[in-house]
Each structure stands twice: as structure tokens, then as C-alpha cells.
């Protein structure tokens, strides 16, 4: 049965529908492409196409979910990151453009035939991007969540990336493993009680991947303290963190004896990644 909204939409052209849409332009295009199984070019070239009752019903259902606040990426089940398609769902965070900085910094420090570790991989966005870009590299990815690792493995397969996945509570599964040239991580760094956890897309994302349920630095402390045995001499540790945490993370790295400690800004000019090198 078609609800009232769908009935009104049925027979309306794509162009007319866009004019009356309650969504912003980008959301409208993404959801309509998904509902009609069209790419963006086809949507433009078929602007005078009329929606059938079934198409209108599918689109109306997607619009309701978006207007209720559900993230676009979860509705369509995919998000692009580092130029690659990634499956996403409620088991993993939505990859964000800010994290591409972490990938770029890791690539810059990864030698030929080097070894890289992605800690808390989630959807696999970091590890898969590294392995896809650097076919020579040996990339390992860890996550404590079996559900997240299942998503990450599918993303590696989809993007033809060679990644070793391990279920692990931080470094636990790495005993006896060869050290790495670079360890990269985008860990939970939002402090418990932060208002952002109840706003926007974050309301729908896995809370354990967002917050450490403490001061926002506890996971970063664990990573910093545990990295040295798993890094090669002069290997790099690189971590994404919150917009106001750079100074605190640099202090933790310095206190732990890392060299060349610094932070890097994202495209918005925010210090988004901090890291340091293990002394030789």
C-alpha cells in the first residue's frame, strides 16, 4: 500500500520533485539516485522522467528516514573515502574526510615494502586505503568488534586490497608479531557526557567507537604507552584526535619519549592528527 506522500509523488517528474523537496540538494540527489538505482549523470539526463508508484514509495521511505535524522551513509549503506567506496552500517563509524589526513601522513612515512598497522579499524577505511594505494605494503588492521571486522573484510574485498585483519583488544593479538614502520589510529576520543554524542549523525553511530566513556584521552594513552614494542626504530605513531586535544596528545607523546612530536592541521585548519617517532 502506498502512503499519502508516495501517492502525491507518483507521476511527478524528477525535476518537479526536486523543486518541492524538503531535503537539501545533495541529500535529495543521493537518496533519489539510491531509490531509482541511477547514477548522478543519469539523474540529470532523465530529469523529465515520471516516478512510478513503487519508485515514489521507495523514495518517500528514504526521505522519512533522513528527516528523522538518520545519516545518509547509513540509509544508502555506503560512503566514499579516499576515492574508494566503503560499506557502512550501524556496526562502524562513518568515514569522514578529516581522517584522510591520517592516511596521507601514514603514506608519507611508509617505506617501500613497509609494514603499517591500523588500530581500531572499524569499516577498514584507513587500512584499505593504505593497502589499495600501496600494493607493496604489508597492512594489518585490528578491532575488538567482530561485527566491525566483518564489514572491514568486505570493504577490503570490494576494493581488492590486501589487509590482514585481527580481532584484538588494542595490542593483545600482536604478541610475537614483527614490528611496524607506522602505527595509525583513529580511536574513540570524545569525552563521556559530551553534548555532541546526542547530536546529528553521532546519535546513530556505535557509541563505543566514539567515546572512551572517560576523559577522551584514555584510548590515546593506551596506544601511546603500548606502541614502542610494536614499532621499528624510528617508526612513527600517528593518531587522530578531537579538535581541542592536540596539546594534550603532544604532551603524552613527549612524556613517553617519542621524538619529532608534532600535530598536523586538517582542511579546516584544526589540529586533527598528532604523532611522534620512536627514537632509533
From TrEMBL:
One of its GO terms (molecular function) is peptide chain release factor N(5)-glutamine methyltransferase activity. It catalyses: L-glutaminyl-[peptide chain release factor] + S-adenosyl-L-methionine = N(5)-methyl-L-glutaminyl-[peptide chain release factor] + S-adenosyl-L-homocysteine + H(+). InterPro entries: DNA_methylase_N6_adenine_CS (IPR002052), HemK-like (IPR004556), N5-glutamine_MTase (IPR050320), PrmC_N (IPR040758), RF_methyltr_PrmC (IPR019874), SAM-dependent_MTases_sf (IPR029063), Small_mtfrase_dom (IPR007848). Its EC number is 2.1.1.297. Residues 24-77 form the Release factor glutamine methyltransferase N-terminal domain. Pfam families: MTS (PF05175), PrmC_N (PF17827). It is an enzyme of class 2 (transferase). GO terms for biological process: methylation. It comes from the Bacteria. Residues 99-194 form the Methyltransferase small domain. S-adenosyl-L-methionine binds at residues 120-124, 143, 170, 186. Gene3D superfamilies: DNA helicase RuvA subunit, C-terminal domain (1.10.8.10), Vaccinia Virus protein VP39 (3.40.50.150). Keywords: Methyltransferase, S-adenosyl-L-methionine, Transferase. The keyword Phosphoprotein does not apply. Substrate binds at residues 186-189. The keyword S-adenosyl-L-methionine applies. Belongs to the protein N5-glutamine methyltransferase family. PrmC subfamily. HAMAP family: RF_methyltr_PrmC. Methylates the class 1 translation termination release factors RF1/PrfA and RF2/PrfB on the glutamine residue of the universally conserved GGQ motif. This is Release factor glutamine methyltransferase. It comes from Duganella alba. The gene is prmC.
Amino acid at each position: 500500500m502506498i502512503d499519502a506522500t508516495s501517492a502525491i509523488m507518483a507521476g511527478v517528474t524528477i525535476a518537479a520533485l526536486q523543486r518541492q523537496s524538503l531535503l537539501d540538494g545533495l541529500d535529495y540527489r543521493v537518496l533519489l539516485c539510491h531509490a531509482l538505482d541511477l547514477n548522478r549523470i543519469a539523474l540529470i539526463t532523465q530529469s523529465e522522467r515520471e516516478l512510478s508508484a513503487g519508485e515514489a514509495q521507495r523514495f518517500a521511505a528514504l526521505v522519512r528516514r533522513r528527516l528523522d535524522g538518520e545519516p545518509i551513509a547509513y540509509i544508502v549503506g555506503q560512503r566514499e573515502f579516499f576515492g574508494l567506496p566503503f560499506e557502512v552500517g550501524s556496526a562502524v563509524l562513518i568515514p569522514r574526510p578529516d581522517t584522510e589526513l591520517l592516511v596521507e601522513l601514514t603514506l608519507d612515512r611508509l617505506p617501500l615494502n613497509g609494514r603499517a598497522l591500523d588500530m581500531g579499524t572499524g569499516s577498514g577505511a584507513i587500512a584499505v586505503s593504505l593497502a589499495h594505494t600501496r600494493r607493496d605494503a604489508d597492512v594489518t588492521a585490528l578491532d575488538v568488534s567482530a561485527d566491525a571486522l566483518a564489514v572491514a573484510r568486505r570493504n577490503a574485498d570490494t576494493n581488492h586490497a590486501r589487509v590482514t585483519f585481527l580481532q584484538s583488544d588494542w595490542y593483545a593479538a600482536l604478541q610475537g608479531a614483527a614490528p611496524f614502520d607506522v602505527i595509525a589510529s583513529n580511536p574513540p576520543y570524545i569525552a563521556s557526557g559530551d553534548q555532541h554524542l546526542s547530536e546529528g549523525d553521532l546519535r546513530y553511530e556505535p557509541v563505543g567507537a566514539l567515546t572512551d566513556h572517560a576523559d577522551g584521552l584514555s584510548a590515546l594513552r593506551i596506544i601511546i604507552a603500548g606502541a614502542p614494542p610494536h614499532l621499528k626504530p624510528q617508526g612513527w605513531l600517528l593518531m587522530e584526535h578531537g579538535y581541542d586535544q592536540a596539546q594534550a596528545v603532544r604532551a603524552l607523546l613527549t612524556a613517553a619519549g617519542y621524538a619529532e612530536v608534532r600535530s598536523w592541521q586538517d582542511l579546516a585548519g584544526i589540529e586533527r592528527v598528532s604523532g611522534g617517532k620512536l627514537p632509533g
